[in-house]
């Protein structure tokens, strides 16, 4: 059984769906990249998995159990955490305070929160020097690291990252993608949305999305296969 099963998702913002029977699986212990052009439906997909949008039909299962109509906060408690598009850090709070807010679901175990914060700061050493700085004064890349770090503070089993590379230099985008491998090795499965095919070398599974459906899936060595890249660039 896969950690995440997405089945027949039909989602829209009005009467007309923008996702048409989206189906895919993500296995535990993978970094999965959901690749597609602007408007393909990637954000809609991860926002639905996080419970921010309700599907017209279809379902999302975690460990084989349907999440039904569970709220976003209930999903966080079940182990799904979203790092949203646009980072959305709290600019007038410090780095440390932003991280603490990400741990709201863990507040009964302060020790676990401290340990998780140490882990996050280990993933993103740049944030250590900035721990007491206001998040609004960080560079774009640092804010992106903070946004991923904050999402990790709930100790998720599945981390959803929406377009981490947007607006970052190639070097910084690579830094963020590289960290996903460490996050995976630390026991958190990662599903990241990307428009940038540069993320593919970091993926164990790649899903190509176009016009509200998943057109291709590639696993392991297949990802290095030129056809996927061509299918994407030619899309
Ligand atoms: N809040 C909204 N209201 C109405 N339509 C929306 C809304 N958000 C997205 N859409 C539409 O849904 C479709 C899929 O958008 P979505 O944001 O999921 O795509 P995406 O692949 O994530 O692209 P992007 O990189 O732009 O985020 C697009 O046609 C978009 O215009």
From TrEMBL:
Pfam families associated with the record: ABC_tran
Keyword Transport annotated: yes
GO MF entry, a single one: ATP binding
Gene3D superfamilies, sorted: P-loop containing nucleotide triphosphate hydrolases
SMART domains xrefs: AAA (SM00382)
Domain ABC transporter, residue spans: 4-233
InterPro entries: AAA+_ATPase, ABC_transporter-like_ATP-bd, ABC_transporter-like_CS, BCAA_Transport_ATP-bd_LivF, P-loop_NTPase
Keywords linked to the UniProt accession: Amino-acid transport, ATP-binding, Nucleotide-binding, Transport
Keyword ATP-binding attributed: yes
Family: Belongs to the ABC transporter superfamily.
Protein name per the record: ABC transporter ATP-binding protein
Organism in which the protein naturally occurs: Nocardioides cremeus
């Amino acid at each position: 059984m896969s950690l995440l099963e997405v089945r027949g998702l039909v989602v829209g913002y009005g009467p007309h769906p923008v996702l048409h029977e989206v189906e895919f699986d993500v296995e535990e212990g993978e970094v999965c990249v959901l690749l597609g052009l602007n408007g393909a439906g990637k954000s809609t997909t991860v926002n639905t998995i996080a419970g921010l949008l309700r599907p017209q039909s279809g379902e999302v299962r975690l460990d084989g159990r349907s999440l039904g109509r569970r709220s976003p906060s209930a999903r966080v408690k079940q182990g799904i955490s979203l790092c949203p598009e646009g980072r959305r850090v709290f600019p007038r709070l410090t780095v440390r305070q932003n991280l603490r807010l990400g741990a709201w679901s863990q507040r009964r175990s302060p020790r676990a929160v401290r340990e998780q914060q140490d882990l996050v700061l280990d993933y993103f050493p740049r944030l250590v020097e900035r721990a007491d700085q206001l998040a609004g004064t960080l560079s774009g890349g640092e804010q992106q690291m903070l946004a991923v770090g904050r999402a990790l503070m709930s100790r998720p089993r599945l981390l959803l990252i929406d377009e981490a590379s947007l607006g970052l230099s190639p070097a910084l985008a690579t830094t963020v993608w590289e960290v996903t491998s460490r996050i995976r090795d630390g026991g958190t499965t990662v599903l990241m949305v990307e428009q940038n095919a540069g993320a593919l070398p970091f993926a164990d599974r790649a899903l190509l999305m176009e016009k509200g459906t998943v057109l291709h899936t590639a696993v392991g060595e297949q990802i290095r296969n030129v056809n996927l890249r061509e299918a994407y660039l030619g899309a």
